[in-house]
Structures are given as C-alpha cells and as structure tokens.
C-alpha cells in the first residue's frame, strides 16, 4: 500500500492565490496613480482653455479719435529713397487710416503729410516724428513717447505727393489698419515695398519692377 503523506507539503493553490492578490494590488495602485495624474492634467488644460481672454489694445480703444495733429515734410532732391510709416510698438495703436501716393505737378519736391487724430489733447505732446537720413535715403516714422502709460489710439492718414512719376528711386510704406493706394503711372526703378497689417492695398502702378514687394496680412 502506498501511503501519501500531506505533512509539511506546500499548499500550491494557496501560494498562487497570494501571488495573484499581490499583482492585483500593484496594478490597482498604478492605475490610481495614473488616474490622479490624468485628472490633474485635464484640470490644467481646462483652466487654460476656459480662462478669460486677455484684453488687447484694440479692446482698449473705445473713444473715437477727434483731436487733429499734422506734420508736413519736404523731401530734398538728393533724397531718392523714401521710407514712411509708424513704429510697430505697443505704445501706438492705429485704429484706421490711409496712405495716398499720387502725382502733383504743381510742386517741385516730394512732400509727405501726416494727419493724425487722437482721443485727448494731452496726447499731442506724446506724439513723436522721427526723421532719419543717411546718404540719399530718408525715413519719416511716427512714434509715441516712452512715457505714454497706455497705448495711444489714433487714426493715421499719410499723403505722399510726387512732382513726377519717377521722382523717387524707391518707396517703402509700412502701416497697420490702413488702406494704401498708389496712383497709376508711378514708377520706382529700385524698389517699391508696401506692407500693411489688417488693411488693404490698391496698386495701380503701370510699371512694376522685379523688386516690388506687396503684402497685406492679418494680425
């Protein structure tokens, strides 16, 4: 007779149950940690997506500009390259405007006139007109003083009059929220560069050069 003894024999089923229980506990803990991390990430994304929109300069321009300011400049004959516009800075916000380039045979030199409208008279002292000359180049740029505590909301109209269609070798205009209109017949053999943000450009130039650059884009 064969006798089977059960004394001191390992309980195989019981051991397997213990191992399974340990693995399940480990997986459960990992799942809880992962779930907690995912919940934190979702909460952060939710806050970012639904956070209130930061105010922009356009939002702060509620008053209608009505205070007039103007500046007239004559371009000497020896300045053949003209750049006109305004500084792209947080201190100055153009709400509306236009740039007109046309012929005036009654004048002998190119002229540039800036017509601005501001919301308050006190802002007139904050307007700066920068004139930079180098060799045969001249730049006329509107800017606001660095002491301006809030952005100046203005309308900007620029009128460029030429005594002849080919009075300038190059013309560069860079503005925002502005319509740029160049009269038919204008010819700039070296370069014509027109840029506007949130504006429109109308070019009626009959003779464009290979260095002509025209761009209108949204901010």
Please give a structural write-up:
The chain is of the alpha/beta class. The protein is built from two helices and twelve strands, in the order ααββββββββββββ. The strands form two sheets. The protein has a six-stranded mixed sheet. A six-stranded mixed sheet has the order 5-6-2-8-10-12, with no helix packed on it. A hairpin with a 2-residue loop joins strand 5 (127-134) and strand 6 (137-144). The longest helix has 39 residues, at 12-50. The protein is extended. Residues 1-20 and 46-58 have low confidence and may be disordered.
Please give the largest β-sheet: 6 strands, mixed
- Count of helix runs: 2
Outline type? extended
How big a fraction of the residues is strand? 35-45%
Indicate the low-confidence ranges by residue numbers.
1-20, 46-58
- Let me know the number of strands: 12
What class, by secondary structure content? alpha/beta
- Topology order in helix (H) and strand (E) letters: HHEEEEEEEEEEEE
Helix content: 10-25%
Radius of gyration: 35 Å
- Cα end-to-end separation: 97 Å
Q: What's the overall average pLDDT, rounded?
A: 77
Q: Strand order within the widest sheet?
A: 1-4-7-3-9-11
Keywords:
219 residues, alpha/beta, 6-stranded mixed beta sheet, 20% helix, disordered N terminus
In short:
This protein is 20% helix and 42% strand. The protein is α/β, with parallel strands linked by helices and 219 residues long.
Itemize the secondary structure elements and their pairings.
Elements: H1 12-50, H2 57-60, E1 67-75, E2 81-86, E3 92-103, E4 110-118, E5 127-134, E6 137-144, E7 152-162, E8 170-176, E9 179-182, E10 191-197, E11 200-203, E12 212-217
Parallel strand pairs: 2-6, 2-8, 3-7, 3-9, 8-10, 9-11, 10-12
Antiparallel strand pairs: 1-4, 4-7, 5-6
